[in-house]
Amino acid sequence: VAVSYFFVLSGFVLFISYGDKGIGYREYMKRRIGRIVPIYLFALVLSIGAAFYFYHYTISGLTIKQIVFSALFLQAFIPGYPLGLNGPGWTISVEMFFYFLFPLLLSFQKKRFVPF
C-alpha cells in the first residue's frame, strides 16, 4: 500500500512541478533521467557485485537477462524478474514508465481542462 501512495505522491509532485511550465519533452526527460538513472545504476552495480560475492551467482543466461532487464528498467514488467537482483528496483522501473507517460497524460489533461 505504501508503494502505491508513493506513486500517487510522485505523480502529484510531477504535476505541481511541471503542470504549468512550458518545458519541452527533451528537457523534462533529461531532468528525470539525470536525477534517477545514475544512482539507480550505481545501486544495480552494487547489487550485481553482492549477488556474485555473497550469493555465488554465476554467469548464465538467467543472470544476463536479469542484468539487462534491470539496466533497461524492464524487470517490473516481465514475470519472474521484478525481484531478481535489486528487489526494490522494480519500483524505479515503474516510476520510469510513468516518467515517459507523464507528458502525454499532461497534454491530454490540458486539452480536457475546463476552468470554472
Total number of β-strand segments?
0
Mean pLDDT: 85
Overall spatial form: elongated
Number of helices: 4
Kindly estimate the percentage of residues that lie in beta strands according to DSSP. Answer: under 5%
The helix/strand order is: HHHH
Helix content: over 70%
Radius of gyration: 17 Å
Determine the N-to-C terminus distance. Answer: 34 Å
Low-confidence stretches: none
Largest sheet geometry: none
Strand pairing plus helix content: what structural class? mainly alpha
Brief overview, please?
The protein is mainly α and 116 residues long. It contains 4 helices and no strands.
Describe this structure in words.
- The chain is mostly helical and 116 residues long.
- Helices cover 71% and strands 0% of the residues.
- It is built from four helices and no strands.
- The chain has helices at residues 2-18, 25-54, 61-71, 89-112.
